[in-house]
Amino acid sequence: MRVLVAEDERDLAALLATGLRRAGFAVDIVHDGGEALERLGLYAYDVLVLDRDLPRVHGDDVARRLVGAGSPTRILMLTASAAVEDRVEGLDLGADDYLGKPFDFPELVSRVRALRRRSARPALPPLLARDGLVVDTVRRTAVRDGRDLDLSPKEFSVLQILLEADGAVVSAEELLERAWDAHADPFTGAVRVCMSKLRGKLGEPGLVRTVQGVGYVL
């Protein structure tokens, strides 16, 4: 799952990114609305954590443009104002959720995950199961035939994407786009290495099949 944090307070942005990465998300950071729009035009983000009071291009205008373009990216708007009228205005602009500062970080993570589930068509349940494999996307746990798989955050993200594909082939490019951040080098073989480790933890019989020249399928 890929998240863009648009926050002009650099210390807060760094804290947000660190916490979201620990929760298993691939996170990029921008500090103004203009850069946010540039990134959103380049990459397919699942969720945008958007500070309302951004320089260059105001957060309200970022939300308007994103919604006007028909983007599937969900918007969680952050603001220092907790007034009801501000929340209403933010939601009317097209934000999918609204959170006042200061906030409890576990609540932020929970809201981001909920927006990601809602962004899928049809909406995804929090529990994904197939062939003895049970993945809880809220608690971030994966079990196969009663055995805890002890996946790394990246392995969990890749497995979740494969499960969500529901039998469709997922290319290495799509996995890199959705599970890694903008700094990932597409030529490092990161997807191949991660897939090898994931297969080892899933055990036998094998669940992930390589479709030569196309990608991977669960």
Automatic annotation (TrEMBL):
It comes from the Bacteria. SUPFAM superfamilies: CheY-like (SSF52172). GO terms for molecular function: phosphorelay response regulator activity; transcription cis-regulatory region binding. Residues 125-218 bind DNA. One of its GO terms (biological process) is regulation of DNA-templated transcription. Residues 125-218 form the OmpR/PhoB-type domain. This is Transcriptional regulator. Keywords: DNA-binding, Phosphoprotein. Residues 2-116 form the Response regulatory domain.
